[in-house]
């Protein structure tokens, strides 16, 4: 088959004027590339068709879909190719399909790497449970959710709605203010989640504490600031032991780093 392609390419070079063929080939590659990119990454079809670069971050945003769809595109592209093609247009189209499939595969791989980069890997510095200190003092309406020794790896940004505090499994998690527990159980990506609602200086405050290894309170229970509500773990969508904490004031999401003493 490769010999046939080479022959066809040689014939094509002879048959078509040099100034015309590259333009046609590039046009075909661009058209097929845009078509396949549109299938593999629907959200970025417009970007692809304008031949603008797609950042790793953009690709990562759709990684869950692209990882699956890209493999289908590759299969469809190869299956749809006819390597016995003899006209320059067919040869160019077949090559473009194969190249586009390869690009889709590479984009999927890049997306997988980018997604992996967003997981949590800072576990070596996490202290053991034995080093846990007494519950932190409440100041300014809020207390800290963890004893010292944690590492903040991420806060609010993009689709991420909380602050990630990496620390050893089993570290106690404290209620950052007094309130009433509204959720205490496993909840999808949050894993073991405790959500409680309190009142700070006249404002309604909702606090979500995610990825717990175990939960120490129940729904409807009243908690006081500094009370242990659960223990650090890595349940749900998490790859390392950490507390993911979200804070909403009067229903609006805020950055925990701006309101909690952390
Ligand atoms: Zn998080």
UniProtKB/TrEMBL annotation:
Where, if anywhere, are coiled coils annotated? 91-118
Q: Which InterPro entries match?
A: Cell_wall_metabolism_enzyme (IPR050570), Dup_hybrid_motif (IPR011055), M23ase_b-sheet_dom (IPR016047)
Q: Which key words are in the record?
A: Coiled coil
According to the lineage, what is the superkingdom? Bacteria
Question: Which molecular-function annotation in GO is an example for this chain?
Answer: metalloendopeptidase activity
Where are its TM segments located? none
M23ase beta-sheet core domain location is 159-256
Stated name of the protein: M23 family metallopeptidase
Q: Which organism is it from?
A: Microbacterium paludicola
């Amino acid at each position: 088959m490769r010999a046939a392609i080479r022959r066809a390419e040689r014939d094509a070079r002879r048959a078509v004027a040099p100034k015309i063929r590259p333009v046609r080939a590039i046009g075909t590659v661009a058209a097929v590339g845009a078509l396949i990119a549109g299938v593999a990454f629907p959200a970025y079809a417009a970007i692809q068709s304008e031949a603008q670069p797609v950042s790793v971050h953009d690709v990562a945003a759709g990684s869950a879909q692209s990882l699956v769809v890209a493999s289908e595109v590759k299969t469809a592209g190869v299956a749809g190719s006819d390597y016995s093609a003899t006209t320059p247009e067919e040869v160019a189209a077949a090559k473009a399909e194969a190249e586009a499939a390869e690009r889709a595969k590479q984009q999927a791989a890049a997306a997988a790497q980018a997604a992996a980069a967003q997981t949590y890997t800072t576990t070596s510095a996490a202290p053991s449970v034995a080093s846990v200190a007494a519950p932190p003092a409440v100041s300014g309406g809020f207390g800290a959710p963890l004893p010292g020794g944690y590492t903040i790896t991420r806060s609010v940004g993009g689709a991420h709605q909380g602050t990630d505090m990496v620390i050893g499994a089993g570290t106690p998690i404290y209620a950052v203010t007094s309130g009433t527990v509204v959720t205490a159980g496993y909840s999808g990506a949050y894993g073991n989640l405790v959500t409680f609602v309190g009142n700070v200086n006249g404002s309604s405050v909702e606090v979500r504490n995610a990825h717990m290894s175990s939960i120490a309170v129940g729904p409807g229970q009243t908690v006081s600031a500094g009370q242990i509500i659960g223990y650090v773990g890595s349940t749900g969508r998490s790859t390392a032991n950490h507390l993911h904490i979200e804070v909403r004031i009067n229903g609006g999401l805020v950055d925990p780093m701006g309101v909690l003493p952390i």
